[in-house]
TrEMBL record:
One Pfam family of this chain: Glyoxalase
Domain (VOC): residue spans on this chain: 27-157, 184-343
EC number: 1.13.11.27
Name this protein carries in UniProt: 4-hydroxyphenylpyruvate dioxygenase
InterPro entries: 4OHPhenylPyrv_dOase (IPR005956), 4OHPhenylPyrv_dOase_C (IPR041735), 4OHPhenylPyrv_dOase_N (IPR041736), Glyas_Fos-R_dOase_dom (IPR004360), VOC_core (IPR037523)
Domain of life assignment: Bacteria
Keywords: Dioxygenase, Metal-binding, Oxidoreductase
Amino acid sequence: MAKEVKSVEYGLEKIFEGAQDFLPLLGTDYVEFYVGNAKQSAHYYKTAFGYQSLAYAGLETGVKDRTSYVLKQDKIRIVLTTPLTQDSPLHDHLKKHGDGVKVAALWVEDARSAYEETMKRGARSFMEPTVEQDEFGEVVRSGIYTYGETVHIFVERKNYNGVFLPGYKEWKSDYNPEPTGLKYIDHMVGNVGWNEMNTWVKFYEDVMGFVNFLSFDDKQINTEYSALMSKVMSNGNGRIKFPINEPAEGKKKSQIEEYLDFYGGPGIQHIAIATDDIIKTVSQLKERGVEFLSAPPHTYYEAIPERLGVHMDMMKEDLAEIEKLAIMVDADEDGYLLQIFTKPVQDRPTLFFEIIQRMGAKGFGAGNFKALFESIEREQQLRGTL
Ligand code: FE2
């Protein structure tokens, strides 16, 4: 059963009981993707998801070996980076993993102390504290590895008022598609290998001071064919949530295993992005060509009033419209949530996005796991990887 930490509060200033405050995190700073063609990826994220041009680094700014486009929508910043030279180490990453998330950067007050405290507790170093400066001030960054080749970079920007980071210039574009209502990153999920989930749960507990506030075992997350296990890790103020998935034995291949095969090891499986109006957001995303997983069967929607119970009365959205858009609904004791999942956003069946609207609910849609995974399995079937 779901293990709950006492006095779970999402109020931003409430600290989870048991969480450590040696690593105060202010929020997600940015997410950096290594991609095969940053210019074209930037166009996709602007056109399809409504991100805005923010900053650029490359040959024109004196960077010789890579180019990076930075996009923004409300509180979300994504960086799309591609190598420019034949001998760039980024190629090794791309060859192994394909397009994917390299950096989940975390906003901190003090990047030196974040590094010292996590290294002292057993972290593996990615980047020693480094000061970067330009005419807008200075930024201190440091970084540690998490699962696979994925890293957390700690960003201290209290003495900086430039557009992104030193070395980047503002990117002014004549092409500015409208935003789609994406507001902030709700959670980022990692897939790890067989028997590795607890190792990484321990890493987030011991090295980063997080708490495990929800757990799901393979009895709870399974379909006729496959299964997985998942544990949700959160930092003390609840702003950073990293669920971790591990495959489990089933009759056929788990979607987590499919990910591990194609990504070449552990990595970020999906990024959940919050919106205040999922109907509007998803309608726009669909119009702009974002592909979502197919809808659960009609019986799923017929069962919603019963599944939501008391929360059905507070539901403002029209069920028929939700069904038409293939959005899923779940509830817990605190309220309900609406969510939908994209298909993978690159050629390999690896990273995808979730769009989520929380109406009080603090969970992750456990009531939808079965319908969701059946939908994923239909896709796996088409790929011949089930
Ligand atoms: Fe999720």
